[in-house]
Amino acid sequence: MEKRKSSIFVVAAWLTLLIAWQILSLYIGNFFIFPTVPQLFTAVFDLFSEKSFIDAILSTLLRGMAGMFLALLLAVALAWAASRSGGFRIYLHPFLTLFRSVPIISFLFLFLVWFSPEYIPLVMALITMTPILTENLIEGFMRIDISLLEMSQVYLLSSRQKIKHIVYPAVSPFLFSGLISATGLGWKAIVMGEALAQPDAGIGVMIRESHGFIEISRLLAWTIVAVIISYCIEIFLRKVETYRFPVSFALKDRQEKRLKTFPEVLPIEKIGKRFGDKMMLSGLQITVSRGEITCLMAPSGYGKTTLLRLLSGLEHSDFGDMPLKMKCDIAFLFQEYRLLPHLTVWENITLSRSSYMSRDTARMRAFEILKQLNMENCMDRYPDTLSGGESQRVALARMMFFPASLYLLDEPFKGLDFELKQRIMNIFREWQRRSRKTILYVTHQDDETWIADKIVKVE
Questions:
Q1: Is residue 419 part of a domain?
Q2: Separation between Cα atoms, residue 164 and residue 203, nearest integer Å
Q3: Domain region containing 155
Q4: What is the pLDDT of residues 109-128, one digit of tens each?
Q5: 451 and 382 within one domain
Q6: Which residues pair with 332 in a beta bridge?
């Protein structure tokens, strides 16, 4: 309904423009210099019979596409470097301001002296598009959620999966906003460059030719063609903007290459992480045994989350060596849910193993885990439709789905009401007994320790 209403307003806008043009043409009364709407339509249709029609459009389109491609490549490189370095961002800003502020016509007259006519429209596109795209992409790259990148690191997502499901969704609103603005300006710059540089073919060349012969209807007809093409490009970009990459599953199930298993006993002691003048965890002594649940109960501010981040490799210790010398797969249940908003519940759960499982197998196993958590009816829902407790269980299901040697849980039952907490803790304990997983979880709540085989309390 909303889409239909939008289409009605667009049609109304075009009709208003045509009616206003027709009234103005009739008022002026000189149809040679201000043709009527029927004359304009006739002139546009007459262009189809010209031998140069296709060549002109294709030449301008190719220049536009080449300019956009080169500008996008350059903008991505500059924006990525600027988003990673504050110094480079400050250094780059004056250049972007300069290229954005200098009048297009100034560049054009300089390029007429410096370049061959064939290259001027392409260079014009590059000069006008690059600053807009770069500024938008810098903003987009800086909006990438670092917490999701950490999640992808823990769950061993590939570089392709990170780009498709974390980087691209964060950057795409800024990318396409920049593309729509840049292509509009770049398209005008290309046509202007063609009109003045006079390469072999192009819409600008035809406009200049029509002006030279004082063929006003033909000049306006070519202008209308240029506007229609620009409008179609904008519509295409807006359609593409809504696209989101689906999760790519394996065609058939295949064996994963697993890393070394967890040691029989993992002693954790004599380690520390400095935050300002404070050294965290320096007095901690705890052992984690394979196949058991170990619970560390400590007050807020002790460094429980820091310990888990050190064990997972997300942080590095400032004092002592981490005892987990061997490389092993680790799953991490963060305090935050860290779910990908454009993926459904079951896709969030199975993304980490999508390269090794067929779609049917992954969906079936996700269903089995969700059923244990009383959430099988949420398979196809999106994260923004879930409550806090439901989101927590989805994050827990994602961790349970991942075949790790060590499972780290940071306040895993936080935010759940008492009845739901007891039910989830029972389910979690039963899952651990069946699978014999090695688990270390931290909490500051005494009523969350009873499922552990070993409890270490720090006052």
A1: yes
A2: 37
A3: 35-241
A4: 777 778 777 777 778 888 88
A5: yes
A6: 408
- Which amino acid would we find at residue 427? I
Q: What is the residue-wise DSSP string for 112-159?
A: HHHS-TTTHHHHHHHHHHHHHHHHHHHHHHHTS-HHHHHHHHHTT--H
**Rounded distance between C-alpha atoms, residue 269 and residue 286, angstroms:** 7
In this structure, how many other beta carbons lie within 10 angstroms of the beta carbon of residue 365? 16
Nearest CA-CA partner of 333 in 242, 428, 259:
428
CA distance 434 to 325: 27
What's the number of domains the chain is made of? Answer: 2
d(CA 11, CA 368): 51
- From the list 382, 300, 402, 297, the residue with the least C-alpha distance to 339 is 382
381-399 burial: b if 16+ Cβ within 10 Å, else e = ebbeebeeebbbbbbbbbb
How far apart (Å, rounded) are the C-alpha atoms in residues 149 and 144? 8
Distance of CA 393 to the CA centre of its chain: 25
Polymer length of the chain = 459
Got the DSSP string for 306-322?
A: HHHHHHHTSS--SBS--
What CATH number should be reported for the domain holding residue 386?
Answer: 3.40.50.300
Tell me, yes or no, whether 403 lies in a domain: yes
Residues 228 and 367 in one domain: no
Q: pTM for this one?
A: 0.84
- Residue 118 and residue 53 share a domain: yes
Inter-CA distances, 34 with 14, 26, 28, 29, 222, Å: 18, 9, 7, 8, 15
The secondary structure of 14-69 as a DSSP string is HHHHHHHHHHHHHHH--TTTS--HHHHHHHHHHHTTSTTHHHHHHHHHHHHHHHHH
pLDDT, tens digit, 9 for 90 and up, residues 284-315: 788 888 889 999 998 888 888 888 888 888 88
For the chain, helix, strand, coil in percent to 5 are: 60, 10, 30
Please compute the mean of the pLDDT values over residues 97-107 and round it to a whole number: 80
User: What pairs with residue 278 in β-bridges?
Assistant: 275
Pairing outcome for strands 273-275 and 278-280 = antiparallel
Cα gap 220→203, rounded to integer Å: 11
Which residue from 353, 299, 348, 309 is spatially nearest to 332, judged by alpha carbons?
Answer: 309
